[in-house]
Amino acid sequence: MVRAQDWYAVEAPGQVERFADELAAAVERIRAWPSLFAALRGEVRRAHLNVFPHEVWYLVHEELQLVEVVALVHDRQDPSLLATRLT
Questions:
Q1: Does the global pTM surpass 0.70?
Q2: Mean pLDDT to the nearest integer, 12-39
Q3: In which element (H, E) is residue 66 found?
Q4: Domains of the chain, each with CATH number or no CATH
């Protein structure tokens, strides 16, 4: 998540706060309704940010009442690159 925010800091400094706010809103949606988004790779789910071309990939651990964010992925990133994080 830091790399994405760092990219905006360099390439679009006026968007850093907006990106951080949108990311926080997406995480809050996930926290409030963890099963809202369909599982797509095993138990891994993803939620799209509304404005920015990123997705939050996460796992729901119901027995622990815990949501684990696995990655923040750019829409154009090859999802197969996440294979090591998803196992």
A1: yes
A2: 92
A3: strand 66-74
A4: 2-82 (3.30.2310.20)
